[in-house]
Amino acid sequence: MTDQLRSLALDALTRARDRTAALTSCVDDRDLTAQHSPLMSPLVWDLAHIGNQEEQWLLRQVGKGEALRPEIDSLYDAFEHPRAARPSLPLLAPAEARVYAADVRGRVLDILERTAFEGGPLVDAGFAFGMIAQHEQQHDETMLITHQLRKGPPALAAPEPPAHAIGPLPREVLVPGGAFTMGTSTEPWALDNERPAHRRVVPAFHIDTTPVTCGEYQAFIEDGGYQERRWWAAEGWDQIRQHDIGAPLFWRREGGTWLRRRFGVTEEVPPDEPVLHVSWYEADAYARWAGRRLPTEAEWEKAARHDPQTGRARRYPWGDADPTEAHANLGQRHLRPAPAGSYPQGESPLGVRQLIGDVWEWTSSDFLPYPGFVAFPYREYSEVFFGSEHKVLRGGSFAVDPVACRGTFRNWDLPVRRQIFSGFRTARDARQPAGPDGGLR
pTM for the full model? Predict the structure, then answer.
């Protein structure tokens, strides 16, 4: 078992570092040090921050070694310096940041070879190594967002998602009411906000079989959705009025055609692809316009994990096996979501598709702790974000690596955020009429 855990940890760390290298080697030093949006850090900050977190947790905590670069800890403390202020810091230059991250990694691999994976919660089952791999992959997704915000010619390339035979699908499925197990107490690399497993009772509800598509969202726009105050939460209405928002981020209209910018390429908006780069307020407004609502976080997880025949909670919609390319669009294999209805092998027992991968899905829920929550290994990962200020997203996106995506994984962000790879699906109470948008997709 120790050798197997060591191999899993090595694979996760290596995959993350390979992706980091790809995201930072495809542009020149000027792009690495530039701030492409005040919402994001310079890419070089993320690069050195990744190395610094790895040093603090794996070299100092797990390896019990002396600090390698303690003088830079404060520079790369995400809570000490907001993103907009980071370009003004005396950051490591790109070459120095690469050398530093590589030096830390070399020492970490030595520690990995001699770690026994037992003796405390930080090392049991290789948790700290899994935590750091997830942390790096989360920053890789952040850097991919920066690439999307970056102006200029394309720096990244990837093949198109595979074509799947997609026949007519029901608009929605019924999820039976009753109790199910939410969260986990057994997933070895699950983070603190996913724990502990607990029973939730959810009344019966209907949920979309796929995320809402660009074509469906265009209908909302064409019907004057951004001009109708009645669909919007008060803060959302203020946001779109103040910033003159009338479509998802990166969209623009030329004549009768909607175009979007995607990683440096301008293209027509594909009507059958899940809509991307919408805020929680936009998702909520669309759902109200459609006579529906956003699912709660508990509803989303029940649709994704609950097996009504056995009563057990699966790791993923398709079962307990790790995701493959046949199950979901993950890991930046493609630089876009797959068409709605793709990945039939990844559907849930009730027939819900694309719950994992493609787009992060906004839920109606605030980011709150589960009953019995214990912060681990530090409060700043989850606890300081709990409250009504942040909304929960579930499911991951095409930009998420499988190590940081599972049926229990929780993401959160401010409801105004649009630069993230966010979409949504809608739901309705079982006793509520289907409305004019029912039927087949």
Answer: 0.96
